[in-house]
Write a structure and sequence with these properties.
heterodimer, A: 262 residues, Alpha-Beta Plaits, five-stranded mixed sheet, rod-shaped, B: 125 residues, Transcription Regulator spoIIAA, six-stranded mixed sheet, Rev_trsase/Diguanyl_cyclase (chain A), Diguanylate_Cyclase (chain A), diguanylate cyclase (chain A)
Chain lengths: 262, 125
């Protein structure tokens, strides 16, 4: 570069020197020098344009990369938030499912849930045999508790009995509120004798609770039970329930506070 | 520019964009069949407001559930606000949630990440 500049400067000096004016080579050198200058300008211009194109391309590439990075971050954020919303919905769903299978007053499984468990138990019987016991329990003279002490006391009695019953059975037994003052107890893998012993314990427990729940002098709380055994997976669920219900009816007829096997 | 009013239903939020007040309010659940169709007018409205006015713009949200395409639209709107904020404008978001629904607040916090403009998450009873 420096050489070029020196040469250019030498030629300019020579061309400007009046001593060489009019020499035939002076005009030829002047024309050649002008031609050289023009071509140099052209080359510089072309390089400048090419450089600008390259810069623009590079910037475009960088902005694509930046935009890609930004969009990637956005997508990641959307996915993250969306997953959290889905988790929230799943939890709400589970909560609703739980609520739909519970009785609000007693916190026990409700009739719907009890029916689901009964059907499952029958299916299990069909697959692997065995037996289960079903009991319907009804609070004796519950109407007179409601009438005599008010619905608040009646509700408390139901909740307390529900608590006592569910605490008194095994983890894999089912204790559900069947409706009103009636409870359903399902005892998988159990014989009549085993369940009779459990029911005896439950009856004693209710008698203890009675003193805590009702005013002094009130008639003691008792339950009547209809108990039945199921070994036949082909037996309709309604028939099993009806058998337990009839046994309960008989228990009521026999003076209440007892267990009748149907 | 006119106010923008969308009646809410079970699946789309109620939307009120008030030009005079410089305020956009969105309330409810958002799982529309076509989120683009629902939110593009809101995005256009915000763009017009930011272009034609130099007054502050406020976004008031009370959203419970958003489907994925609504989340995307929401982020587009928040990006608009961030752009305006970077350009020196006064913008802000208020995200209100029911006090017992803490998870909605956590989600609002997820949205707030990466933004530098005022973004308040407020509990109400």
């Amino acid at each position: 570069m420096k050489q070029h500049e020196e040469l250019e400067s030498r030629i300019e000096t020579l061309l400007a020197d009046p001593a060489y004016a009019g020499h035939p080579l002076h005009e030829a050198l002047a024309s050649l020098f002008e031609c050289y200058r023009e071509q140099t300008r052209q080359i510089e211009r072309v390089s400048r344009i090419a450089d600008r194109y390259q810069d623009a391309e590079r910037d475009r590439g960088l902005s694509y990369a930046a935009r890609y990075q930004r969009q990637l971050r956005q997508v990641e954020k959307i996915v993250r938030i969306s997953d959290r919303y889905q988790n929230m919905l799943r939890d709400m769903n589970q909560r609703l499912h739980w609520l739909s299978s519970r009785d609000e007053l007693t916190g026990l499984p409700n009739r719907r849930h009890a029916l689901v468990r009964l059907r499952e138990e029958l299916q299990r019987l069909g697959r692997s045999g065995g037996q289960f016991c079903l009991t319907l329990a009804d609070v004796d003279h519950f109407k007179s508790i409601n009438d005599g002490y008010g619905h608040d006391v009646g509700d408390r009695v139901l909740a307390a009995i529900a608590h006592g019953l569910s605490e008194g059975v095994r983890d894999y037994d089912v204790c559900a509120r069947w409706g009103g003052e009636e409870f359903l107890l399902l005892f998988p893998h159990s014989s009549i004798e085993e369940v009779q012993s459990v029911l005896g314990r439950l009856r004693r427990q209710v008698a203890v609770q009675s003193g805590e729940l009702l005013p002094a002098g009130a008639a003691g709380l008792t339950l009547s039970f209809g108990l039945t055994l199921c070994r036949d997976a082909a037996e309709p669920l309604d028939a099993i329930l009806q058998r337990a219900d009839q046994a309960l009816y008989q228990a009521k007829g026999q003076g209440r506070d007892c267990v009748v096997i149907g | 520019m006119q106010d923008l009013i969308v009646e809410g239903t079970g699946s789309i939020p109620a939307i009120r964009a008030d030009w005079e007040a410089g305020c956009v309010v969105m309330k409810g659940d958002s799982y529309p069949e076509n989120a683009f169709e629902l939110y593009q007018p809101v995005i256009d409205w915000i763009e017009a407001f930011l272009a034609r006015e130099d007054r502050p713009l406020r976004l008031q949200l009370q959203l419970l559930y958003l489907n994925t395409s609504s989340i995307r639209a929401m982020m587009d709107m928040l990006d608009q606000l961030q752009g305006a904020f970077d350009g020196g404008r006064t913008v802000g978001v208020e995200w209100r949630y029911e006090r017992e629904n803490e998870r909605v607040a956590e989600l609002a916090e997820e949205f707030r990440e990466d933004y530098t403009f005022p973004f308040d998450i407020l509990a109400h009873d």
